[in-house]
Amino acid sequence: MSAPAVSPSRRRFPLKRWWPIAILAVFVLTAICAPLLAPYDPNAQNLVGRLKPPGTVSRSFYYWLGSDELGRDLLSRIIYGTRVSLLVAVLSVLLSGAFGTALGLIAGYRRGWVEIAVMRIADVFLSIPAVLLAIITVAVLGPSLVNVVLVLALTRWPRYARVAHAQTLATAGMAYVENAVLSGAGNARILFLHILPNIAGTLIVVATLEFGLMVLFEAGLSFLGLGVQPPTASWGSMLSTGRNYVATAWWVATLPGLCLFALVLTVNLTGDAVRDRLDPHFR
Amino acid sequence: MVGFLLQRAGQAFVTIFGVATLIFFVQRLTGDPTYLLVPETATQADIEALRHALGFDRPLIVQYLGFLADLARFDLGQSVVQRVPVIDIIASRLPYTLMLAGGALTVACGIGIPIGILLALFRDSAAAKAAAGFVLAAQSMPTFWSGILLILLFAVTLGWLPPSSTGGFSHLIMPSIALGLLSMATFARITRAALIEEFTRDYVRTARARGVGPVRILLRHVAKNAAIPIITVAALEISNLLAGAVIVETVFAWPGLGQVTVQAILARDFLVVQGVVMLGALVTIGLNLLSDFLYSVVDPRIALGGGR
Amino acid sequence: MTRTRRMLASALLAASLSLPGGAAFAAKERLTIDLVGEPNSLDPHVQWNPDSYYVYRNIFDNLVTRDDRGVIAPQVATSWKQLSDTKIQFQLRDDITFHDGSKLTADDVVFSVKRITDPKFASPQLGQFDKIIDAVADDAKTVTLTTQGAYPALLAQLVKLSVVPKKVVEAVGKDAFNLAPVGSGPYKFGAWQRGVSVTLNRNDAYWGTKAAFPSVVFRAIPDAATRVANLMAGASDLAANLDGDLAAQLKTSQRAKPVPVLTERVAYLAMNVQKEPLNDPRVRRAIAQAIDKQAITDGVLGGTEKPLAQMLSPAHEGFVEGIKDLPFDLAKAKAELAAVGPKAKQEIALVTAPVYDQRVVQALQQMLVDAGLSVKIEMTDMGSWLKRMQSGPDSIPVMAFSRWSCGCQDADGVLFPILHSASGWANAKDKTIEEALETGRQTLDPAKRLAAYKTVHERIASEYFVIPLYQAAQMYGTSKNLVWTPTPNESIFVNRMSWKD
Predict the structure, then answer these.
(1) Is the N end or the C end of chain A the one with fewer CB atoms within 10 Å?
(2) In this complex, is the C-beta atom of C475 within 8 Å of any C-beta atom belonging to chain A?
(3) What is the pTM of this model?
């Protein structure tokens, strides 16, 4: 660590760029260690201690951050809520990213009817409202965290597919790809070893933008009553019930709201940092 | 070029047909509206009778063919819940959707593009950093929360603006801000990127060397070239705005298509959902077509519709 | 006794209101009312939905109505007499004119009855009126209705039968009537701005109590927090469907106040008693003891709702005094479940939909888990919920939270559908209950009816086929200046309101 601050890696990725990533790491750690950090069971109710302000004592509870509409400890729920927000966002980005990228790559490389079919199917999915898919999924498969991820992945994959497709078109004509084709490399090899690494930067840029959106989408689904099941704590559902108490018990919505805000903000800042590094426009 | 457009128009037609078909069958996995229309006290016989009267007891394929036959006559059918033609429902809501999308786009561009310019021209100034922070913060709040906070502040506490519903220009301000703030960052980002790229081009260097001022360069030379990617993004962002308005419309009681879609989905008002989704598909596909077209203008390496 | 209870209840609700309706007139030009959604239709015969009837009940008159105390009172009919077990004759007012100027006659009443009971017309409300098999106009102001067998709930149902003008409906047809409804009520249809609002204008020629406000606007405001903000900002004068916590916010407002009213809505825990583990009466008994109703009504809901020991509220015909439920006793519930053994431990889904108060559902779940059951909440949308709940004993969810209103304040509209095997909701399959329900449905003698329903209540109290929880409240919020006594039947009659500056 005593090395001078002029090492090549530092120069390209200065120290000040690291702090959002550090905060993000805190969120991730909180999610993983939730049972160790939370002072109480996040679902334990105390009906005589409803909507108590931060610092109140009621029965066996000491409400550091106040209590919610059923007298549950807000701090414990916020800590556990980190899990849902992060898990939903990470899984849906991975799932939609992998699926969309694969299809977009193939469409851009093979062209012809494969391209037409894939891109038009992407259009079909872009046209279907996420809420419709959410209601149908809940009605047919039942509600769960996995299904929330499924809904988000189904509605978001076309965005990756469109980007991967366009980028592949731009890359496929380049000399090194032509060389690889001429030297007899297989299709899969060309796709994943030559094209994918070249377009990965742009896709990661899209993924970081999407990650913040997914956190907000999960909250939106909770607002519409289609999110994770109660009483599971999620910031989205805490925020959407807490809206009813903005004037009488500000802490119920404000605290999970600030956490959500901080998470999306750090994700976006991290995204910007990654983008500045990867996106050719910013180098 | 004409061949390309014809080909894509043909594909668009097939895509919309695909959307209609998918929506038709997928919706019907969730049952039918009968249970939601009758009182709790209705007997199974009452429910069956109403189901028969509404035609939901017919085989799916018969219902589907009926839907297609209506569609061929440009008839979107009638809402089973409101008992008015679907086209009337859409026509009454479309102006509000366009107004909100327009308002939000104005907010997003009106703030986002100047901030993008600021970020590109004065990268490390304090003002640029503050602006960047503002843009990111605005993008990080769920609208159902920021919306109610806006209402409580500007309508209840300060009394400057009407809290909800429609009526005049003042009613449009808060929903446009709530929705527009989300897209602002996208415009700031793409404007910054486009400008930085243009500023590194030879013609700008030449102009600079000739002593042309930065504002003049921006207005006379760079703006035109940087506009293309910004328009491309705007095209995509419009379809995001149209689709993402559901929650803003609910919070501000704004009677747009987003609200109508959610209500129709929940009410199993199939034909309304089909109508709105097909309209949405038309817009989405049209905008995608436009952005593909613009891509090829920006980057001539991408041949239009070529095959391998 | 029932009557006194009922009056007591409505007096209680009217606690903050001192002026009788219509006593004070002020220069309030337009009353703004915020509902959840817009009406499905303003044709009173083609839908069944609160946002519609809140509006159209101001445009149309009904054959009979309920006064502010909840007692059935004359409206279009001035008096009625039972000619036989199946025939009832109504004398009609002769001074009623529709908004188009034509006179309301017996023909219009007969037409309205026949319209809504015609199976081909396919009214969703058909089931509420299909016991009426014939309607005859004896003369211009006399109508006789014939029912299929004796039907004691007839008057309670007729409260909801709006009289439409025969000539207008026949001239314009079904769909056009919905767009420009013509009635005889205290307000005339003005304009319908789709998705936004319906405006009504005062009918200055109204035969009854004239309205205090020249016009009234019903708006669609889907988000409850926004409805509260509208009240606090003075943008609306009345809002429906708030919850206790939202209404509590209004207590600090300069402009608005909460106006809660106990309704005929009964909240209960629905169970499928044919399925494991609830087919074991010991488990159901434990559940009945595990639920602390008082903690739900006072702790969670804010004290307006009242715990119930039977499946009816005091606002219902058929409510029986003195029915007792098992007192809350967590220790006994635990012991009972422990005695049942591992069977009681299997996972139970508590099915619910977003319209129900999720605070109550989560509190219930916690209470049952505390007693030793393993209960998981399962949320679906309303359409799926209704479908599953009416799917018969083989597939009705094991457990669900529900709130029931027949809109008729009569035992037959609550107990029959929930407990008689002719209905899709029912799964108890209990002979005693079914016989008593059939008696209650077909007996005109009030004492015999009450005895039959007493049997049902007692059977529920000993067998726990369902667990009655509480009498639900409707939480309105109004401007501080609005004088209004809401009624248990969840109607907003604007001509019974007034304004006090």
Answers:
(1) N
(2) no
(3) 0.88
- ipTM > 0.85 (yes/no): yes
Cis peptide before A231 (omega within 30 of 0): yes
Quick one: closest CA in C to B256, which residue?
A: C195
| pLDDT per residue rounded down to tens, chain C (501 residues) | 444 444 444 444 443 333 333 444 446 899 999 999 999 999 999 888 889 999 999 999 999 999 888 889 999 999 999 999 999 999 999 999 999 999 999 999 999 999 999 988 888 888 889 899 999 999 999 999 999 999 999 999 999 999 999 999 999 988 889 889 999 999 999 999 988 999 999 999 999 999 999 999 999 999 999 999 999 999 999 999 998 888 888 988 899 999 999 999 999 999 999 998 999 999 999 999 999 999 999 989 988 999 999 999 999 999 999 999 999 999 999 999 999 989 889 999 999 988 898 899 999 999 999 999 999 998 888 888 999 999 999 999 999 999 999 888 999 999 999 999 988 999 999 999 999 999 999 999 999 999 999 999 999 999 999 999 999 999 999 999 999 999 888 899 999 999 988
Q: What is the DSSP letter of C130?
A: T
Between chain B and chain C, how many beta carbons pairs sit less than 8 Å apart? 147
| Torsion over CA: A213, A219, A225, A227 (sign) | positive
CA nearest C251 in A: which residue?
A248
Q: What letters, b where the CB count within 10 A reaches 16 and e where it falls short, cover C451-466?
A: ebbbbbbbbbbebbbb
Q: Indicate yes or no: CB of C252 within 8 angstroms of CB of A241.
A: no
DSSP per position, C215-228: EEEEEE---HHHHH
| Chain A environment of C361 (Cβ under 8 Å) | 230
Q: B154, B165, B268: which to substitute to probe chain C, counting the most C Cβ within 10 Å?
A: B165
Helix-, strand-, coil-residue percentages of chain C, each rounded to 5:
35, 25, 40
Using the Cβ of A220 and the Cβ atoms of chain C, whether some distance falls under 8 Å is answered with no
